[in-house]
Every structure is written in C-alpha cells, then in structure tokens.
Amino acid sequence: MNDADVNLPRNEDKSENPRVPPTFDREKFELVKIARLKRIESELGVSLEGIPTRYQNLHAKAILGESSLREAIKAKCYDCSAWDNVSENVGNCTVRRCPLWAYRPGGKG
Ligand code: SF4
Q1: How many CB atoms lie within 10 A of CB 74?
Q2: Containing domain of residue 50, as a range?
Q3: Which residue puts its alpha carbon closest to atom 2 of ligand 1?
Q4: Who's near 37: CB < 8 A, 6+ residues apart?
Q5: In a domain? residue 45
C-alpha cells in the first residue's frame, strides 16, 4: 500500500482570497501519516505495533536512516524504556555499561 492508495479527504476550503491560508486538515494529516507508517512497515518488514502513536514517526525515521544520530539515540532509549515515562526513565538510566548512556537524552551525567 502506498500514499496514493488512501482515499484522502479533500480540503473544502476554496477561498478566493490568496492571502487567506488554507485551513489545516487534521484528518488528512493523520491519514497521510498512517499511510506512510504502513508503507514503512511493509517495505522494511518491521512492525511499529506497540509503539505509542506519538513516538511512531520518531522510531520510523530512525529505522529509515532519515533522522539525526541524536534522534536515533532518543528512539532507542525510548524503546529501551518501553515508551513509558520516557523523560524520567531515560534521564535516570543507571545502565552505565550501555554504549549510549553518555548520549542519552536528558542524561544527568
Ligand atoms: S542509555 Fe539507558 S535507556 Fe538508553 S539504550 Fe542504554 S540502557 Fe537503554
């Protein structure tokens, strides 16, 4: 499935005034995001199931090599903390032998 396979709702705002920006279509945005994630899952043969929606894009970008190294480390640390209370869990991580420990987001040294 690719982005073209999804029936996207049309933005009905046909304003004649070019100075009026089109309204943001949240539903369309979500459908495009879901279609992209489904494409990633099928192309790479990985499942993003179990990853909270708010972190799926971060994780997918890292898997595709489209993120910065900082974002990739963040995705790995969030994954390691089971996507739960990530700021506190990652910041207070005590696994000093982990190669990412010095680079973890929110690390307190
Ligand atoms: S630094 Fe801590 S939270 Fe990050 S991957 Fe290593 S063990 Fe997991």
Answers
A1: 23
A2: 26-103
A3: 93
A4: 48, 56, 57, 60
A5: yes
Best of 79, 83, 90, 97 to mutate for ligand 1, by most ligand atoms within 8 A of CB? Answer: 90
Quick check: is 20 in a domain? no
In a domain, 42, yes or no: yes
> How far, in Å, from the CA of 19 to the mean position of ligand 1?
48
Per-residue pLDDT of the chain (109 residues; tens, 9 = 90+): 455 555 555 555 555 677 767 788 888 888 888 888 888 888 888 888 889 989 988 998 898 899 999 999 999 999 999 999 999 999 999 999 999 999 999 987 6
Q: How many domains does the chain have?
A: 1
Q: 16 in a domain, yes or no?
A: no
Distance 47 CA to ligand 1 centre (A): 21
Quote the pTM value.
0.70
What is residue 74's three-state secondary structure? helix
